[in-house]
Write a structure and sequence with these properties.
Helix content is 42%, strand content 15%. It has helices spanning 12-23, 40-51, 66-76, 90-95, 97-117, 152-171, 193-203, 222-234, 270-281, 305-311, 319-333, and strands at 4-7, 28-32, 56-60, 80-83, 122-128, 175-180, 183-184, 207-209, 216-217, 220-221, 257-262, 268-269, 287-289. The N and C termini lie far apart (42 Å).
C-alpha cells in the first residue's frame, strides 16, 4: 500500500488526519516546513507522536520549494494527496502578505504539478470559509458566488480553488476542495480564539473580544473534521453530468472537480463559547471589547448538505463536549 502524502503534517488538522490514517492501517508520508508562525515546539510534539506510530515517515520540506517537492513526488509516487500545508491566519495576512503568496500560491502550484506528473488519483486540499468574504446570505453555500474576498488569505484560498479547477479540466486530475469552518480541539493552533481565550483566562489576563462580542462562528470539532477529510479523500471527484454552462454550479464542474463546506452547521455565539470556557476553567474572563478587525467577518455558518449527501459526513460533537475536551487536553499538555 503506497503512503498517502499529507502536507502540513505538523499542523493542527494535518497531525490529526495523519494520526487517524495511521490508526486505520494506512501508511503516511508527512511533510512540513516547521515554520515559526506559532510555537514550533507544539509542532515538534505532534510529529514526535506520529513518529511513534508504525507506517509514518516525515520529511521537513517547504511546499514552496520547487525542486524538493518535485523530488518528493518522483520518489514517493503517491496515489492520494491530502494537502493541508498553508500559511494560515486572516489577520496575519494583512501584515505579511508575501508569506501567503509563497506558501498558498507557489506551494499549491508545486503540489498540483506533482499530482499532474505522477498519476495521483485524487487531490484533497484545504480551502477556507474565508472565501465567502462579503457574502451575507446564510448559511454559506458552495453553490454561491465567492468573488469578493476580504483578506489576502481568503483570496489565496479562492485562487487555490480556481487553480485546482484548471488542473482538473486540463489534465483530468480529480480535485476536491474543503472549506473549513473554525476548527478547534486538542492540539489546536495557539493563534485561534478558543486557545487564546483559554490561556488568557487561566493566567488571569484580559481577552480581546472583537466586534464587541457580536460574533458567531460555526465551531467544528477536530474529530468531525478528520472524519470528513478522510471520507472525502476516499471519494474520488468525478465530473458532474448535470453541470451546465448556462447555469454554472460553482461547487462542481464538467471536470472531476468538487468543492464542499465542512463545518458544524450550528453556529455558536462567541459569548456562549467564553461562558463555557469560564465554566470549565472555573474562572471569570476579563473582556476587552474591540471593534471588528480588518478582513474579519461577523458570522460564519456552513451549508453542508452536499458533503452529507456525497460522503456521509455528519458532525456529532456538541460545543459543550468539544470545549470540555480541549480544556482537558490544554491542562494535560501544559501540566496545569
Amino acid at each position: 500500500m503506497k503512503p498517502i502524502l499529507v502536507t502540513g503534517a505538523a499542523g493542527f488538522i494535518g497531525f490529526h488526519v495523519a494520526r487517524a490514517l495511521l490508526m486505520r492501517g494506512r501508511p503516511v508520508m508527512g511533510i512540513d516546513n516547521m515554520n515559526a508562525y506559532y510555537d514550533p515546539s507544539l509542532k515538534r510534539a505532534r510529529i514526535a507522536l506520529l513518529q511513534a506510530e508504525a507506517g509514518f515517515a516525515f520529511r521537513e520540506i517547504d511546499v514552496a520549494d520547487r525542486v524538493p517537492m518535485a523530488e518528493l513526488f518522483q520518489s514517493l509516487q503517491p496515489e492520494f494527496v491530502i494537502h493541508l500545508a498553508a500559511q494560515a491566519g486572516v489577520r496575519h495576512s494583512v501584515e505579511a502578505p508575501n508569506a501567503y503568496v509563497d506558501s498558498n500560491l507557489v506551494g499549491f502550484a508545486n503540489v498540483l504539478e506533482g499530482c499532474r506528473h505522477h498519476g495521483v488519483r485524487h487531490l484533497t486540499y484545504a480551502s477556507s470559509s474565508s472565501v465567502y468574504g462579503a457574502n451575507t446570505s446564510m448559511p454559506f453555500s458552495v453553490h454561491d458566488n465567492v468573488d469578493h474576498p476580504l483578506s489576502l488569505y481568503a483570496a489565496s484560498k479562492k485562487a487555490n480553488e480556481l487553480m485546482a479547477h484548471c488542473y482538473s479540466h486540463l489534465y483530468g486530475l480529480p480535485t476536491t476542495g474543503l472549506r473549513f469552518f473554525t476548527v478547534y480541539g486538542p492540539w489546536g493552533r495557539p493563534d485561534m480564539a478558543i486557545f487564546l481565550f483559554t490561556k488568557a483566562i487561566h493566567e488571569g489576563r484580559p481577552i480581546d473580544v472583537f466586534n464587541h462580542g457580536n460574533m458567531r462562528r460555526d465551531f467544528t470539532f477536530i474529530d468531525d473534521i478528520v472524519e470528513g477529510v478522510i471520507r472525502t479523500s476516499d471519494t474520488i471527484a468525478v465530473p458532474d453530468p448535470s453541470w451546465s454552462s448556462a447555469t454554472p454550479d460553482a461547487g462542481s464542474s464538467k471536470a472531476p472537480y468538487r468543492l464542499y463546506n465542512i463545518g458544524n452547521n450550528r453556529p455558536v455565539d462567541l459569548m456562549r463559547v467564553i461562558a463555557l470556557l469560564e465554566a470549565e476553567l472555573g474562572r471569570d474572563a476579563q473582556m476587552n471589547f474591540l471593534p471588528m478587525q480588518p478582513g474579519d467577518v461577523p458570522e460564519t455558518y456552513a451549508d453542508i448538505g452536499s458533503l452529507v449527501k456525497d460522503v456521509g459526513f455528519e458532525p456529532r460533537t456538541s460545543i459543550e463536549e468539544g470545549i470540555r475536551s480541549f480544556v482537558s487536553w490544554y491542562r494535560d499538555y501544559y501540566k496545569i
